[in-house]
Protein: TonB-dependent receptor plug domain protein
Amino acid sequence: MSYLFHADGLTSVINNNAIRSLELYSGSYSARYGFATGGIVNIEGFQKRDSNLSVAHLNAFLTDVYTYRNITKDLNVFRIW
Structure:
C-alpha cells in the first residue's frame, strides 16, 4: 500500500511484514467507521510471530529495516527504521 503523497507513490508507509491483512472498502459504511462516504483502508497487523525476523530493503528510492523479536512468551517487539 502506498501513501498518496509519500515519495510519489513509490514506497510504502507500512512495512509489508507488519501487515496481517489489508481490506479496501468503497461506498457507505456502518457506524464502526463513522458512516464514511469515501474509501476505507482497513489494515490489521500481526499480533505475534513464532520466530524472530529481520528484513532490509535497499534501493534507489528507499532504505528501510524491519525487525521483530520474541523477548519472552508474552512480550515481543518490532521496529521499523
